[in-house]
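ERR on first pass: missing label on line 2. Operator R.T. fixed the label and resubmitted. Corrected input:
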Amino acid sequence: MNTKPFSPYVPRPVTLVEKTKLSDFVTRFTFEQDNGKPLAHKPGQFVNLSVYGIGEAPFSISSPPRRTHNTFEIAVRRIGAVTGALHALEPGAKVGLRGPYGSSFPVMKFVGKDVLIVAGGLGYIPLRSLLFYQLRHRDEFGRMVLLVGTREPKERIFVDEIADLAKSGDVEVLETVDMPDETWKGNVGVITTLLPKAELDPANTYVAMVGPPIMYRFVIAECRKKGIASDQIFVSLERKMKCGLGKCGHCQINELNACIDGPVFCYTDIEAYQEAI
Amino acid sequence: MTTYTVYKEQLPLLFEKWSEQYALYVPAKLREGFYDLVPWKKEIEIAWDFDVAYNSPKRFLLPPRETLITFNRKTCEAAPVFEAPAQILFGVHPYDVKAVNQLDQLLESGAPDQNYVRRRAATVIMAYEPLTVSPSAFWATVGAATASHGYDLYWTKIGPASFTVEVGSARGEELLAMGGPLLPSTAGDKEGARRAKARILFKARRSGLRYNWEETPRLLAKCWDSPLWRRYSQMCLACGSCNLVCPTCYCFDIREESDDHLEQGIRYREWDGCMLESFAKVAGNHNFRPKAQDRYRHRYFRKGKYIYDKIGELGCVGCGRCVRACTAGIANPLKVFNELWEETAHEH
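pass 2 clean. output:
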C-alpha cells in the first residue's frame, strides 16, 4: 500500500523528449510522464510545470488528449525566469508537473455545429489541443474555421502545420498579421478583419477564442454583431495562476478563480464580471 | 453544551500541564496599547482585558513562511513537508474564532490544503470573551460578536477570579480535566457569563455599520463605479499592511530556494497581498490590476461580496487591525461600507 502522505503541492517527474523551435522566442516542448500514464487532460486545460530551483509556472497544454500515450506538448515563449530555464533544457532533462488543472472547451456542445476558432498570437497553442481533438472526430462537426492573427510575420508559429491544415480541406484557415513585412502576401489588419470573410451561420456556430487580453473585447463584439449568442462563445482567460487549486488568490477575476473556474469560460457566465474581459 | 466554572488559582497548574504537551500561547501586553498572543511562561502576566492581539491568529495556522515541499534538482523527485506543532491558543476573541472558521472553510474546500488542514487539526483554540473593545473595532455589527463553533473551550470572565468555560470539543474537556475534578457551572455563574457577554456587546455596538451587515454584498454590487475607490486609493502606498494584519487574508505566493550545491531545495509559500503592485502581474509585465484603485476595490469586494457569495458571511470580521495598521489611514472597512451606504441612500 502506498502510505506516502498526499499533498496537492507535490509535482511528479516528467521527462523532456523533444524540443522544436517555432519562432525566435517560442519553442515547442514534448514531455513524457515518468509514470507511463497518459496525461488525461481535456482541451483548454493547463499544467503547472516546475524547473526545480527556478520556480513553477502554468502552461496551456498544446496537444490533444491521448488515451494511449504518455506524452504531451506545451509551447512556450521565452519571457521570464521559468520559461528561460525551460528553454535551456535538453531532451532527457526532467521537470516537475502538477495538473492538469482547470476547465476545458465543451467539445460535446460543438458536436453537429460549425466551430470558429479564433487564435490571436500565442492563443493558437491551447486551441491546438481543441483543434486536433476535433480533427480526430472530424465527421462529428460541421464547418471548422480557424482564424489566426499575429503581430508580425516573423512571430507566426506552427506555420507549416497551419498550412497543412488549410491544404487538407478539413479546416478553413484565414490568417492575418498586424504589421506586414515584404515577405507577407496575405491579409493585413487585426484579427477582427477576418470575421466578415468567414461567412458564418450565427445560429449554428460555436466560437472558441484565445489571445492577448486586448483581443477578446473586439472579437466578442464582432461575434455578437454577427448574431452569435453569448452562450455560444467560449474564451480562455490567462491570469497569474500560481497554486492551481483556487487558494492562493492570484488569478482572481472578480470572485472567480481562473485556475479552477476557468481558464475556459462561457461568455454568458462572465459577461457581468468587470474584471473578465 | 456543558459549562464548567474555573477559578483563577487553578490556572497555573492547568497552564503548566498543558505546556508539557503543547506550545501554549496566552495574551500579554507588549507595550502600551499593544497586545499579542505570546508563548506562556510561569511568570507571565496575562492581559485579561486586551482589546485585540495586534497580530492575528492566522499566523499559527498559515505561517508567514511555510515549506511545502523538498525537491532534488537532479532526480526531480519531490516530497511533501508537513509541520503541525501541537499548540494551544488561549484567549482568542470570538471575532478571531470566526476568522479561523472562515479560513477552515476556504482552505479545506475543493482540493483541501493539506498543510493547513494538519496545522489546524493540531491546534486547540480556547476562545475568550473580550472585556474591552479596540477603538477601531466593529465586530459586533458585522455578525462576528459570537462564534458558535470552531473552539475547543470558550472562556468567559465572570468575576475577578472566576470564569465559566463552555466545552466545544471532547479534546477541550479533557484538557480542562487535567486540572482536577470539574465543577459544573451553577445557574448563577451561567447568568454571570450571559451578563458579561451583554456588557461587552453593549460597548462594542457603539461604533459600527449603520445598516444590517447582510446588505453589504448587495450594496457593493451597486458601487463598482463609485468615486470612493479613487478617493481613498489615491493615498494607498501599496504596502500590503492591511493584508498582513487581516485575520482572513490568506493569499500566498510560492517561491523556492536551493542549497549551496544546487542539488536539494525547498519550495515554500509566503504571505502575499492583493494590495501589492505585482500581485496580478504575469510574465511579460501585463498587470491585470495595474492601478491602486483596482487593487483597493478588489480587496473590499472580496471582504464584502465575493467571500459572502461563497460562504454566507462577510470576509471582514471587524477586528479593526487594518484600520490601525494603515499608514495612509485609508484601510477602513467600516468607513468604506458606511460611506457607500450613504452614497446610495437615495436608492434604499
